[in-house]
Amino acid sequence: MSDHPRRCSLAAEDAHRPYEIRRLRIGFYLALFTIDEANKTVFVIGFRHGHHRQISSKLPANSPEG
């Protein structure tokens, strides 16, 4: 994730926030994250089981990068 975070696809939760949310599958789970290009930083903002519903209501309303 740290070397090529854009290789991961957009998460379903992306449609519900004003910032980009990507996902990385880790076993049966999805790591949800956003990218701060200016600082070359990845912020992990949530995890969910791959077959569970979206967790949009539990994610930050604004991008963690400020």
From TrEMBL:
<protein>
    <submittedName>
        <fullName>Uncharacterized protein</fullName>
    </submittedName>
</protein>
